[in-house]
Design brief:
alpha/beta, eight-stranded mixed beta sheet, four-stranded antiparallel beta sheet
Amino acid sequence: MPKDQRIYWNPLLETLPREKLRALQTKKFRRILDWAYSNSPFYRNFYKEAGLEPGDIKTFEDIRKVPKMEKGMMREVQQKDPFPYGDMIAVPIEKVTAFRQTSGTTGTPVYQACTWDDWEWWAETWCYILYAQGYRESDRVFLPFGYNIFVAFWAAHYGAERLGCEVIPGGALNTEARILRMKDLKCTAFMATPTYILGMAETAKNKLGLDPARDLDIAMITSAGEPGGCIPATKKRMEEAWGAKVYDHIGLTEVGSWSYECTEQPGGQHVLEAYFLVEIEDLETGEIIEKPGRNGKMIITSFDRLAKPSIRFDTKDVIRWAEYDCPCGRTFRLIDGGIVGRADDITKVKGVLLAPTAIEAVVRSIPELGPEFEVIVSKKGELDDILLRVEIMPGKEGEEQSILSHLKDQLRVRTNLGYRVEVHPYGSLPRYEVKAKRFKDIRKKET
């Protein structure tokens, strides 16, 4: 463990021996389970139907007896009172002080209730994230996103303030104005989705004649909302474009801010285990995976969220435990390479399992290709067809044949699949500020 305790937001919890951390998780799980059972009609009925009572959970291994919940249950319960959250909430409706909702990219949005204590909890978890990534009181942090009903970086705003940073909200500005404000105010850090981080750099160069790596003072960038921050090729593009360190973070509206990279960047992300329990479930057998290196579906519990508890929530995100420890000395376990993909998105194409992140890793590793792309999986008769739309960087048009040959070769090596590739004019593919929608499987719609 490093002698310098100043690298930790909470040295006690972040370096807690594994056996003590496991004991803490068991205690906190039993507490949130009892809270939900006692105060949420949904959870009480859910567990009674499963023949479970809070007293049945005595050991860490007993946690696996608790039935999982899914996003569909959250949507269904919203049809009940109290409006608009339904009987999943575990506090009187008068105690709810903040409304948030999911983006709705996988269906009807889920409404999230927060008490003031919940919001303080959100901010505290973000302090762990930002402090581990090097944010300090001296930093001036710009948030280039519209402050809306999505949680996005709302909690990051309050977490940065709690940590002592100066925070500048840039929601009402367009991209060009945001970049100029960051330049004028000499901001040292900002947070955005990987798509928008690359899009801002593109706008700075093509519309403002600015080189972010040379003309701005950004030293740190926190990315979230998409898997790009944990894809080495995408991260490299972002870091080169801005001349800054890019750190990934993973959070969910329904769960909270549960995972983050630290300054050591060992290739994985810490799970904030003092506040969350992450379990990895085998996609076929349902067994809980403890050993590193095996992909599985993430089941997660938020220990300290009271208004709308999230207990053994099946996220559908595919992750794996890392085989290595982090040099930073934190005892929180690492997930290797971030989120591999979503169980819903990892689909069979031509009999081969395909994760959209694998395509992104290839496209973003070829510097002659532009920052945006699209993938459309469809049927051509009885056969699957994959169409990949890309852009070629300005000045590289004469190398199109060799670029596409290299692209197809790399796709074949990385995904074991062949693709039809369309080249579109630079800047013509959609640009996104929040979550990008690059992967479209339209086979079901066609049938």
